[in-house]
Amino acid sequence: MTQPTLIRRDYLRSALDLAAMGVPVLPLRQGKLPFGNCPTCAGNTCGGRPTMKTPGLCQCPRPCHGWAAAATDPAVLHSSAWAEAWRQAHAVAYHPGGAGLTVVDLDNADAVTWARQTLPPTRIVPTTRGEHWIYRGTMRSVNGVREGVDLKSTMAYARWLGPGTGTMTDLPDAVRALAVKEPSTVRAAPLVITVPAGVGEGQCRHRTPAYLERGIVMAEQRITEASSAVHATVYQTFLAVLAAHGRCGCLADTHVARLFAAAQAKGESPRHCADAWANARTRLGL
Fold this sequence. Notes:
Layout: H1 3-20, E1 25-29, E2 33-34, H2 49-53, H3 74-77, H4 80-88, E3 91-94, E4 101-106, H5 109-118, E5 123-126, E6 131-136, E7 142-146, E8 149-152, E9 158-159, E10 169-170, H6 173-176, H7 209-224, H8 230-245, H9 253-265, H10 270-284
C-alpha cells in the first residue's frame, strides 16, 4: 500500500471523526479547492436544491456545490459518489456555519497581531501563514474584511487543521461588526414592498422556515460576492428568490429589505433595486 493511499485514508478517517461530532465535512483537492462545481452546477445554476433535499449529495455523478456538499452522514461519506474524491483528496474541509461556528481566518502575522489586540480570546488553530480563531455562533461569510482577515461561517468552508488550543467562546460583536459596511457606503432600502401571497392563500409550501432563511442568505451572498455585472446579478437573484418564494406567502418585507440592502451595498440605487424587483415580478406574473 502506497503512502499517498495511507494519507488519503487518514483524511476519510478524520472526516468520519468530525462527522460523528456533528461537523459537516468534505474532501479538498490540491490547491485547497473543493471537489465538484461540475459544468451542470457551475455557479450553482441548479439552485442547490438537490443538496438541500439530500445534504452532501446532488444529482450529479460526483460531489457538488462546494460547502453545500459537506455532510455528517457516514453513509454519504462512504458512498460511491464520494469514493473518487477521497482517493484524490489532499485535505479535509468543514462547513463552520453547519457546525454552529465562525472562523476568523488570519492570513499573516500582522493580522494575528491585530486579532490579539482587538478580539476576545477563543480557540486558536495554527495555519501555514497565520491562525484560525474559532468562535461559537454563526454569521454571514465575508472575505477581506480587513487586510489578511476573512470570515468563514455560513456558505463557506475552512480547512481542518486540528482541534487547536484554548477555550472556544461565543461569537463577539467585534467580529460581527467586521461584516458590516461603513455607513457611508451602505444605503438602507427605503421602500416597503408587499409580496402577494398568491397560490396557497399564504400557506408556505416549503418544509420549514429554515428553508426560506437559507434561500435569503444564499441570495445575499450571491449579490455580495458579485465582482462584475452587478445589475444582472441583482436581477437574476431577485428572480430566483421570487420564483421560489413569491407565490407561497412566506416572503416578508424584512426579507425584501435584506436583499435591497445587499444590492445597495454593491452600489445599486434604491430605484435600480425597485425596478429589478418589479421586472422580476412581471417576468413571473406576480
